Recover the amino acids of this structure.
């Protein structure tokens, strides 16, 4: 790939942007990776191989995209910024296995897009140096779509990474942690300092590996996703009070549902495990339907 510029070189990156009259946009979280070593670590963690199907969110100037092409993966890269997309289109031109889609990743139905773009039934990997602005909503979207990926390696701001893998009772434990724990096995692979980006963000980042896990629920999943978000709205209120107001049911009825689920009524949502949330969702769903 001799004709492809090394966009992890700060000098090359700046010159490229300048020659296209572009500059990093804060509102799109444009902090570009300028460290080839971190790029390699991310691609290695993704285990990208010849013929793999990969979705990348926010390719930017192509630091990860070009490295993926080097592995022979078929990549669908989704970028919101038209200007950057035009520049990247030129950079990627010699690489036939990369498709660039100029779109807002938050507006995409991933299952439909994957079915359209990749061979039927082929596992699809996900990689991204995710812009901070969309990381929460993006993760909710892919959990809403039941995590349609076989492996994901994602870079987040450290605080978001912590929220994703937090367990019950930890201060970062949130609805996002429960959904992540339900759909995936998550692991923080390594932390990343702000020096590896240009422009330099104010906070550190972390790279997470997500693998799909066996799921406990079937038809009740939609109900579960909504219930978890609903109960975390008042994380310090008891599960009993949360359930009464969320479902608009009598205390007596909620006490029965909690008893069936083996959950102490005075417990707080922030202390319930993924399994407890799942069981409560199943029992409540069965009662309501
Ligand atoms: N992948 C590049 C890298 O690592 O150097 C750029 C990463 S930069 C942190 C985030 C990228 O996501 C930017 O290119 C930005 O324009 C893009 N982006 C931001 N919001 C987006 C959205 N809603 N949909 C798709 N791309 C988005």
């Amino acid at each position: 790939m001799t004709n492809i510029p090394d966009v992890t070189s700060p000098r090359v990156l700046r010159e490229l942007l300048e020659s296209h009259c572009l500059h990093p946009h804060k509102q799109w979280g444009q902090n570009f990776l300028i460290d080839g070593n971190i790029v390699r670590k991310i691609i290695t963690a993704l285990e990208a191989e010849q013929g793999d199907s990969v979705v990348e969110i926010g390719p930017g100037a192509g630091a990860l995209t070009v490295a993926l092409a080097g592995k022979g993966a078929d990549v669908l890269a989704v970028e919101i910024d038209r200007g950057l997309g035009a520049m990247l289109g030129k950079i990627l031109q010699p690489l036939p296995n990369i498709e660039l889609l100029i779109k807002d990743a938050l507006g995409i139905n991933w299952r439909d897009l994957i079915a359209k773009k990749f061979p039927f039934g082929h596992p699809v990997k996900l990689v991204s140096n995710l812009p901070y602005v969309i990381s929460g909503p993006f993760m909710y979207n892919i959990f809403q779509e039941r995590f349609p990926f076989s492996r994901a390696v994602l870079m987040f701001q450290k605080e978001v990474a912590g929220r994703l893998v937090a367990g019950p009772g930890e201060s970062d434990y949130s609805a996002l942690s429960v959904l992540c724990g339900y759909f995936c096995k998550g692991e923080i692979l390594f932390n990343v300092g702000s020096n590896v980006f240009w422009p330099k963000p104010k906070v550190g980042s972390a790279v997470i590996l997500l693998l799909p896990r066996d799921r406990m629920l079937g038809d009740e999943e939609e109900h579960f996703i909504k219930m978890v978000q609903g109960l975390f709205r008042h994380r310090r209120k008891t599960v009993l009070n949360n359930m009464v107001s969320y479902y608009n049911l009598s205390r007596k009825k909620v006490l029965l549902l909690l008893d069936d689920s083996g959950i102490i009524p005075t417990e707080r949502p922030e202390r319930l495990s993924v399994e407890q949330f799942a069981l409560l969702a199943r029992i409540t769903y069965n009662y309501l339907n």
About this structure: The radius of gyration is 21 Å. The CA atoms of residues 41 and 243 lie 44 Å apart. Residues 28-33, 57-61, 63-64, 78-81, 84, 104-106, 129, 131, 134 surround S-adenosylmethionine (CB under 6 Å).
